[in-house]
Amino acid sequence: MSDTNGWATPGGPPPQQQPYGWPQAPQPNPRWNPDGYGRPGVIPLRPLNVGEILDGAFNTVRRNPAVMLGVSLVVVLITQFVGYVVSLPLLDDLNRATQATNRVLTEQQALDMAVDLLGSSAQVAVITGLVTALGSSFLDGFLTVVVGKAILGRKPTFGEALKEATPRLLPLLAMTLLYTLMIFVGLLLCIVPGVYLAVVFGLATPALVLEKAGVGTAFKRSSLLVKNAFWRVLGVLLLAIVISWVINQVVSLPFSLAGDFSGFTTMFSGEVPEYTAWGLALATLGTVIAATFTAPFSAGVRALVYIDQRMRKEGMDLQLARAAAAPAAPPAGSTDPTPPSGIPMGQATGMPTGPTGFAEPGAPTGPTAPGGTGVPTGSGGAAGAAAPGEAAKPAEGTESGEAAKGDEAPEATGAIEAAERAKAEGATEAAKPAEASEEEKPKQDPEPPRPS
User: pTM of this prediction?
Assistant: First the structure.
C-alpha cells in the first residue's frame, strides 16, 4: 500500500510495484545515518531508544507550539472549568466533615455525613469524568495527528489537523470509555490486571487515529504491537507518567498553597482548614497550566512508542522514508496530484479512492483502477503500453519534450524510475523509424534516366 502519510499496514502489494513517475523509496546516500533512513522530522527513521522517544515528544511540542499548546489550553480550560463549577457544592460537605473533627458525633450522625459526602463526590466524579473523557478523546486524537505529521517533517495547521481528527471523535470517545472501564475493573479486582490492560491496550489511540481503524481493531492492533515488548512499553509509558506528574506538581503546588487550599497557613494556629471557592479556583488554574504542557507530551510519547513498535515489527521506517520523500502537495499548475492514500503501489493515480487510513494486514486497501490502467514496474512504462501511432507523441529527446514530461509528474528520484524512463524512450525511438519510412516512401523522387 502506498500512503503519502506513511501509515500503511503490512500485507499490501510489494514496494517495487509503484506507479510510474512518483518518488520511490529513498536510496542511501552519504548524508543519511548509516543505521536508518534519515531524520526528516522529530525522530530518526529507525527503531528508537527511550531518550529519542522522550526527545521526540518534546521536539514535537517545540516545533509546533501554537497548534499543540493552543488547542491543549482550550480543551483543558473547558474541562477544568466544568469540574470547578460542579465541585463548588462539594465544598460545603467537605467543610462540614472537617469541622466535625472538633466535636463528638453519634454513630448515626457520622454515617449520615459520610453518605452525603460520598453521594456528592460520586456525582462530581461522574460529571467531571464524562467531560474529561470527551475532552481527552478529542485532544488525544488531535495531538496524535500533529505528531504523525511531525514525524515526516511536516507542520500541519489547526484546520488540517482538525479535519483529520474530527471524524475519529466518536470512535475515540467510545474507546476511551471502554478503556477506562476495563482498567477500573482490573484495578478493583487486583492492581496487576489493571496495569496489564493499561499497557496492552495503551497504543490503541494512535492505531485508531493513524490507521483509521475501528475500536475493536485498534485494541487488537495495540495488543499485537505490545506483544513480546510488554516490559519495554510499560517502562516508557510509566516514565512518561512520572515526568508528567512531576511537572504537574511543580506547576500546581504554588497555586494550591497560595489559595490556602491545602490548609498550610492555618495548621500552625491550630484551626481546622476551610475549603473555599477562591482556593479551588487557584488550584484549578494551576491544573490548567500544568495539563496544557503535559497533555501534548503524553500524547506524543504514546504516538512515538506506537511508531517505534511498528518500525521494529513491520519495517515501517522504510515506508515513512518513502512518505517523507513524497511531496506534501502537488506542484503548482499540476492536474495529477500526489497519489491519494489508499491506492496500492502499481495502481494508476487520479482514480477515486476510499477514505484515507490503515487497512487490516492482508485486506484490500483501495479500489482498483477501471480497466487496469495501473502501470506496474517492469512493464515497459506508459510509452511501452501505448499504440505505435501515439508512442512518438511523448518527449522527443529535446528540451521541450523533457519539459512536457516534467509537467506531468515530479522528477524521478530512484534507479527503478530511471530505468522505466529509459525503456519508455527506447520504445519511442524504436517507433520513429517505422513511421518515418512509411511517410517518406511516397515522397522519394524517381531516379532520373541515365543519358544514353
Answer: 0.64
Q: Nearest CA to 390 among 364, 353, 418, 427?
A: 427
Is the separation of the CB atoms in 406 and 19 below 8 Å? no
Q: CA torsion, points 59, 63, 68, 69, in degrees to nearest 10?
A: 90
Asked if residue 86 belongs to a domain, the reply is yes
> What's the structural domain count of the chain?
1
Q: Which pLDDT tens digit goes with each residue over 203-239? A: 999 999 999 889 999 999 999 999 999 999 999 999 9
| CB atoms near residue 246 (< 10 Å) | 11
CA angle 323, 329, 333 (to 5 degrees): 140
Q: Are 93 and 117 in contact (CB under 8 A)?
A: yes
Would you say residue 375 has pLDDT above 60? no
| pLDDT tens-digit series, residues 33-50 | 544 667 888 898 889 999
Tell me whether residue 244 is in a domain. yes
CB neighbourhood size of 187 (10 A):
15
Cα torsion for 275, 281, 285, 287, to the nearest 10°?
A: 40
Range of the domain at 54: 50-317
Angle at 52 between CA 47 and CA 57, to 5 degrees: 115
Instruction: Indicate whether 350 belongs to any domain.
Output: no
Q: Is residue 328 part of a domain?
A: no
**Predicted confidence (pLDDT) per residue in 51-84, tens digit:** 999 999 999 999 999 999 999 999 999 999 999 9
